Amino acid sequence: MFVTFVEDTPASKKIPWANTAMIVLNVVVAYLTINRPDFVPLLGQYGFIPVRHISSIGAVISLATGFFLHSSWGQLVANMAFLYMFGKGVEQRVGWKNYLGAYFLIGFASELAHWYFHPQGVSPLVGASRIVTGLGVMYLLMYPWGKMKWVFSFFGVPIVEIPSRTLFAMGFWALVQAALAFIPWYKFAFLTSSLAKHGIHLTTLVPTAGAAWGAHLGAVAAGVVLHFLMPQRKGKS
Fold first, then answer.
1. How confident is the model at residue 1 (pLDDT cuts 50, 70, 90)?
2. How does pLDDT run across 198-214, given as a tens digit for each residue?
3. Residues near 96 by Cβ (< 8 Å), separated by ≥ 6?
């Protein structure tokens, strides 16, 4: 059983090419990295680590590469489901160029905030959740009471659809982040042991910066600022 949201507006039928490209890139990177034997060193090399000084090309590159690295398939699926929903609406309002600009600016702002709150942090900051948070804030400000639907599906087949609103979707996203941060998922690894035998890990098994609330606060601030700075097309809210 899988639960997600979809927009319930005519504009949502358009294909958001930039957002789709970001989702594909995240999935491809996860496919190429998660099951590698050197996965942990790779996270350390390409994830953002606050204590590491920007004194080499590799350290500079990690400012952007950490956006696309995920520590588990569960983290990837949760992030991409909400990125599809929030990013789609944002791109339709600001255009694909501004959307890509917002994607990376939110990412950089989240890293700056993470560095500010944890200047001596040694765990790599990875994942797109902070970018999803920033885009989600933009989406909320653009469509504060937008129509959405909860879709309960089984292996991709919709079973039940329940009308909802943007505020509730953002609340659910916050709950997902809290669950990923505070529930000791490793204790429930036995529930997915059959998948783990095939290299599919739904929970994070390697040390990372986790939910990184400071980074998410930076993303929220960036999302608010970008919402008011970026020109927007007219649309229903």
1. very low
2. 555 545 555 454 557 88
3. 16, 17, 18
